[in-house]
Each structure stands twice: as structure tokens, then as C-alpha cells.
Amino acid sequence: MLPHKQIELKLQAAVCAVLPDADVSAVLVRPCDPKFGDYQSNALMSLAKARKINPRQLATDTLAKLDVSDVCEKVEIAGAGFLNFRLKNSVLAQTLEAAARGEHLFFSQAATPKTVVLDFSSPNVAKPMHVGHIRSTGIGDALQRTLRLLGHRVISDNHIGDWGTQFGKLLLGWKNILDRPALERDAIAELERLYKIINAECDANPARLDEAKAELVKLQAGDAENISIWKEMIRLSQIQFDTIYSRLGVKFDHALGESFFNPWLGEVVNELLAKNIARESEGAVGVFSDGSQPPKEDPFLVNRDGEWAADPALVRKSDGGFNYTTTDLATVDYRLKTWSPNEIVYVVDDRQSGHFKKLFLIFGRWKPAAAKTTKLVHVGFGKIMGDDGKPFKTRSGDTVKLGDLLDEAVERAYKTVCEKSAELPEAQRREIARVVGLGAVKYADLLPNRQSDYIFSWDKMLALQGNTAPYLLYAYARIKSIFRKSAETANIQHPTPNIQLAAPEELAVARHLLNFGLTLEAVADEYRPNFLCNYLFELAVHFSRFFENCPVLKAEDAATRDSRLALCDLTARVLKQGLETLGIETVEQM
RNA sequence: GCGCCUGUAGCUCAGUUGGAUAGAGCAUCUGCCUUCUAAGCAGGUUGUCCCGGGUUCGAUUCCCGGCGGGCGCACCA
What we know:
The protein has helices at about 5-20, 45-50, 55-65, 90-100, 135-150, 165-175, 180-185, 185-205, 205-220, 225-250, 265-275, 325-340, 355-365, 370-375, 400-420, 425-445, 460, 470-490, 505-515, 515-525, 530-550, 560-580, and strands at about 30, 40, 75-80, 80-85, 115-120, 155, 280, 285, 300-305, 305-310, 315, 345, 375-380, 385, 455. It is of the alpha/beta class. The protein binds one RNA strand through strand 1, helix 2, strand 8, strand 9 and strand 10.
């Protein structure tokens, strides 16, 4: 067990001894400013506050019941009632030695593994994947990797947009103005062309719109020709998705598109009607407020000119068609029945938060028992903006295609690699550029707090200094370089390492390594990969200082050298594991 | 109009149960490559945490009211 966890458990026991009825689940030990110690707990102050007792007295009483002398120096009470813990140097070294023997990598498996359905990426058939998809795909994949690393069971499901009204227009276009050679050259571009032309025609000409609707009705009725064209459009789109996902290294367990849930939509609506959760209104069927919460917080109500008016979630249109709320409900039901998850997590643009609020409330009314055991979570994120502060577009004002974006990132990285490492063979420079370019895009997307919009900047993500993927990859490559040199040198052996921490730079790296697991847990709890980005950046900074100040291969003696080699190796392993968890590859040399 | 999100250094952004003197990168200035990769390191400068109240030992964080920005508001997803 990692030292901070030992301290935490003992502290909780001590608090129990002093305050037997206290809820100690919030009594936590967190890393803190090094001037105070390695770890700190401020939980006693809030406990004391709730009980109106003197916090310093509580700290003193707790400390009397607390014996952490096996792992810590003397515990200090500071300020209004902080407890400051400083690890014994020997404990730090032992923890690192255990890691060097492969017993752990500074994190542990979750005590109670969860089953989590992760819904992310969700591109649309017949449309190019664009820059917006990087967010859902990257964040979702990082969460998938983090949860799995911590021992949770993850079912990732790509809820592809393969059904809906747009297919009426696409079918009309396919039948009338399809350019076969163009389709073979670039299927998605051709499908996009069809859609744009027909869409414009429909806007201008109601008769054309009726034709499109007729094609859609035929498709929904199972017309053989329309079904086969529709399937072909899905197949062509899937090729595009697969190409992108393979470049990004993203994998899904399932890709159950919207159409998969078609058979159950009518049933869902009937059930909602039967249970009086939904009712008819203006020919459509919708779920309305049940008055269970104050109007201000009720998403089924909207205030118009001082009056509270209904703002229902429609589940069946007046023409008999279904809405995406219906599909999402059928999807929830399927997931419950198939995987019995503890959580279903949707990694979707924040703009859809209203939809999810309604969806989750309907779920609670529709499946009250399941709602007690399964938590639905919307992990939202902001938009990507251009440097003009407006949504990120190409110069000509089009959306930026994801494939083009990745190409450009790799190309820009290639130019830099050629400047910095001209001596490396061409193929290796290409490979470095691929890893650095893709890594830079992913890292830049994961670094900001997901809920805020961020400004997309080639220069920032590939500037190769500061908090960027290239900086982290560079730190990793520098470590690997030491080991290449070490292998070249005769007479150097690395037996079971005996870790000795003396220099402040060594201690800083060592302490930071110990917090890897805490960081992973925070990422999983809050669904925030940016915590891991910042952790890895700090690790790289600590390592770079160590690298500058502490010679490894030229250390004063063999014991120091071997200890430092072990520290290098552990740093490399955490960097690699951490980057991998963000979906970013590493290179041995750059 | 109503609701949701947001406002932190010149710029781009972090800020983990409310916690100690609010941090990083960029930019800018100054040093450091016959020594393991200088895509690096060391140091200097940088703040009305939008404004005003409230809660309390303590507020960038929580509550209320303003102001500014973004987004969403019945048959698209």
C-alpha cells in the first residue's frame, strides 16, 4: 500500500477513536506545498466546524491516537488545524525500490471495480469527421484507458449517427445526381456534396422537400432499394471512421448506431404513455414536467414573459417519427439489460446538456429501480475556437476535417524534426513526426479543463516548449538516451537497485512519482484527463531539473549511478504509462 | 425574455472535500552547451482572481444581486 494511503487509513481510524460517530469518508490526505510537508489533511477543520469544537484541540486529540511513525517524521499541527505529514526518506526509497522490482507503478487497482458504459465520439454517417470530433473521441478514449488501468470494467460504445431525417435527402441525391467516379475517389466528399445540393434545393422548393421525405418514409418502411443504398452509405462511412480511429489508436468494444435501436422505439413510447410519463400534445407525444421540482430547476418548464410554459421532450413527432430522446431512452434500456452498468457516461458537447438533463429525469421516472443502481453522467466539453475567438474554421470558412488536421500536425512536426535531428534517417524522422504530431493534437485537446472553450493554435501545441506533448516526449527520449549510452558502456550492471535520495532534485522526482495513482483516481472520479496532463508535465519538469543537476552515468560512485538509473527508469515508466493513458505514443529518440 | 456555462498576469490557461504568501506556459530581460539530447536548465519582471454584498477562523472556490462573453430554448441530432 502506498504511504499516503496508509497515513489516510490510520488518520481515519484515529478520527473514529476521537469522534466515534464521524463520517470519515471525507478525511483525506492530499499532496501539499513542499514547505509544509509531503501530505496534508485539512479534514479536521471541517469536522470541527460541523461540531462547533476547537479545530486545534481536535487535531491534538486526534494526533494522540495517531501513530504513523513507521512512515512519517513527526506529524505537525499547523495553522487553524492542518495536519502536515512528511514521509521518512527511507519510506520514500523503499516505495521506489518496490516499484523498481515491478511490484507496483505508484497506483493500485480500485477496491470496488465499477462497470461503466462509455459513450463517445459518435460521428455521423455520410459526413466527414471534423475537428469537433477530436474532443469527444480524445476525452472518451483517455477516460476509457484510465478506468481500465484502475481495474474498472469499461464497455465503450460508439453511438454512430446512422439514422435520421438526413437520409431522405441523401437517398434523393444518390438516386439523382450521384457521381460514381467521385464516390470511388472520395466517398465522404461525394456524399457531402449530395447532401449540400439537395438540402439547398429543399430549402428553396417545398416539392423537393416532399420528395426527400418520401424517400425517408420508404427507408423507414423497409424499402429494399433504399435500405441497400443506406447500408452502402454506412459501409463507406465506416471505412472513413476506421481510418481515423486507427490513426488515433482509438478502439471501441461496440459501435451500436442509432438504427440498431429502431425496433424498440415504438415500445418505449407506448410504455411512457401507459405509465403516464408522456402524453399527446399537438399531435406529437412528449414528456412534460411532473412538478416534482421547483419550476426554476425543472428542465421541462421554460419561463416566457413571466409565465411558466411547458418545454417537453418529444418522443414521437406528429408524423409518427421518433426523436433522439426516444433513441437515447431505448439505448439506455438496452445497456441496462445487456451490461448492468453502475454508470453510463456520455462524452458529448456541453451544448447538449439540456437534452441530457431531460433524458436523465425521464430515465428516473421510467425506470425508478434501475435509476437507483445506475448513475447516468454527462461529461460535457466546450468548443474549439480559432485565434479570432470564433469557432475554429478553415480560411475559407469551412469546418476543419479531422483527417486534414492530423495530416497538418504530422507535417509540421516533420519539419521540426528535420531541423532538430537532421542526422536521423528519413524513416525514423517520419515516425517521430507521426507520434509528435498526433500526440501534440491530442495533448492540446486534453490539457484545458474540458468544460471551457479553448483556442486552437498550431504554434502553441507544436511550439515544442512549455506544457506540450513534445516537451513530455522529449523528457522521455532523454531518459531513453541515458539507457542507450549505459548499454554501450561496459562494466555497468544494474542489480537490484538500492535507491538513495540525497539531492533535492532526486527527492522532488521521487515524491512526485508517488502521486501518480492519486492523479489517476482524480481523473476517473471527475472525468478530467487534464489532471493527468498537468501531473505528467510537472513530472517532466522535475525530471529535467534532475537531469541538469544530477549526472547519472558520470555519477561520483557506482551506487549513486545505479540509484539514479533506477530513478530514471521509474520516471520513464510513469511517463510512458501516463502518456499511453492519454492515448499518446512515445518515441525512444527524437 | 428564461435557463445553462463562463470571467484568474500583456496573451493562452491551471487551480482536486472552502485552506496557509493564487500558479504554469508564452512573451520580455539576463546567464548556462569540450560533461548522459539546449525541443533543455537557472534567474528577473508580471495580479482589483469581473464588480458589490452575504455565509465563517478562513472564499478564486459556496449563496444572493449586478456587468461582460458564449451556448441552448417542441416535432434536427
